[in-house]
């Protein structure tokens, strides 16, 4: 079966990509797990459960005890409260160290369920069954986390899944907004590591309506190959893995200032990438053809401007408090050219100026 | 300086043992940390803070930002609630990925602070400054955790400290009960790996009054050497590390059934060790001289009988639900002879019978 191999230092595992995969997970688990599985807890959310939970549970053919728990759909579920609730469910179900957690859903379910797996009895195995396009990114690489009221993903760990089962069929129930959100991370992988792929995307994807499933499979393989590469080089984010943060420093600030859920992650990343491209042009005195990319983004329905509801000074402060930053400084991933990322410290002044330029102009002021 | 080297697979670090060490931590940190430290958060508890917090903070000579947080003394602080509170404190203090957490206290502080360190921004560095005898065990080996209402240490991870600073002077403010609790783990190390050490302990320690500090230093080094050995062989508890659980299967059940805090951990482990010795004699048909050990335990003030307030059937159920067990079975560490531990599955019946024999007899029934 089509797959991408992730060779993290702590563990190697496969990302299987195929249509209809959700109904084969139970059978495939046998060959994937190196040792006995005593029971399974499937964690999913309230939007995904009615669509795909039965298929996943059914795929185990009652060969071992399966428990399920459904969290509320949405970012708010990545909380201490829900974390504790899921732990309670795991204990009540009698999960032991040989049990496996199945994360069925988007990045929210994956991050939460992964963090539960990484800390339940000091760590048990889990598999990812991503159901959003964005989750092609979040389900791979082992970063798991919940949010703290004072910051997103502030509490978490590194815990690699045993396997990722990507059922591309499941993507077709996603609203367009979620395609757009996930596609930003696909583009990002092109920008930081694969110019050819980026060009191909620009040719092939000009709308999210009726994308053929073969194209989606191919796109995911290419995009995941970039991530696989980077994770293999630097599992624990002490070096090149930071490049995956391209577009994210501003995106995190925008998400946090807007209130989570107002803009999707990918929408914010799109704005952040345009910003990072402009900043790169300015700092390295190169021409990256930003205009053309911005047009493409607009064609795909992205807003590339920063909402005028937001305050530049507050965005700058948030960027200084980013998890990747040492207190006070702003470190960003920029491009010296397409495919050539670099992590550098940028003076807050420079950032502030360029942010002002990217603000949405109020027309009926 | 006297130290024991811990060579875990994921990291090697030293346990420094000396009197007055708490006032030197700040200075020693410089030479221990491989990279820049941006700030420090000292986590301690309400009994330890008035005694030693100033010394530790003072040892940094205001060379970098130091924050402190004091949790309530006692097992109840290993909770989700306190975990979240300490995370809040860490975020409010602006800790970043270069910050270091200092765990100043007994096993409760060490386990909680270590779990915070392991999950704050997906893991930052921490050092252990144990102040109880029991913490000679808990501060080494990287097992960190909080409790869930449904089970002790159910939520946690493996996260090794950068160093352990053991100030033996600080032990002298401990109540006798806490010496007794910690000493059970010292004895355990003798039982599972070092008969000579066990004999030496039996000679040298017959009361906890006025133990000379040199003897305590020596005892800690020997005891830690056993733990170091085992952790080096098996950091993640997939094999021999389970031997450290000698006496603990029953102890956990007793603690949980009594309500935490009623018996200390070590008092419960003492009962558990006598039980495991008797069971070993029975199963392997050997003579381990249990009577003599039981006498020594009594001389030291341990109660070796199971309280008749407890129900045997409930203890058995709890032993079946132990974190180390696969659901339903009872696996215990026994001794084929002193110094020769083995992990085996014991039929619940056999356990039940022997538990009845070890129950306290009600005299004024
Ligand atoms: N761990 C990482 O490396 C990493 C990387 C990027 C993002 N993330 C995290 O991922 C999260 C965002 O992920 P997301 O965008 O997938 O959000 P999400 O999980 O909230 O999913 C988006 C929405 O789509 C719904 N949904 C999911 N699958 C569906 C389907 N097949 N059909 C219809 N509806 C479906 C969900 O219920 C939700 O309402 C954020 O919390 C972010 O921090 C993590
Ligand atoms: N991580 C591990 O490998 C491991 C191993 C064994 C035990 N543990 C954990 O350790 C905990 C028990 O540790 P503990 O026995 O140190 O308990 P503790 O931390 O509660 O300390 C016992 C009591 O002594 C007080 N105290 C601490 N130092 C003092 C001092 N120098 N002078 C006066 N009073 C002092 C404390 O405030 C507390 O009231 C349990 O939660 C147990 O699960 C962990």
List the main descriptive attributes of the protein structure presented here.
metal-binding (chains A, B); 2 domains; 11 strands; DHQS/DOIS_N (chains A, B); 365 residues; 3-dehydroquinate synthase activity (chains A, B); cobalt (chains A, B); zinc (chains A, B); Rossmann fold
Provide a descriptive summary of the structure in words:
Chain A is α/β, with parallel strands linked by helices and 365 residues long. Chain A folds into two domains: 172 residues, Rossmann fold (3-Layer(aba) Sandwich); 183 residues, Dehydroquinate synthase-like - alpha domain (Dehydroquinate synthase-like, alpha domain), CATH 1.20.1090. Helix content of chain A is 43%, strand content 19%. Chain A is built from 13 helices and eleven strands. In chain A, the strands form four sheets. A four-stranded parallel beta sheet of chain A has the order 4-3-5-6, with helices on both faces. In chain A, strands 1-2-9 form a three-stranded mixed beta sheet, with helices on one face. In chain A, a hairpin with a 2-residue loop joins β10 and β11. The first copy, chain A, is globular, with a radius of gyration of 20 Å. At the A-B interface, α3, β7 and β8 of A face α3, β7 and β8 of B. Bound molecules: nicotinamide-adenine-dinucleotide (NAD) (2 copies). One nicotinamide-adenine-dinucleotide binds next to α4, α5 and α6 of chain A.
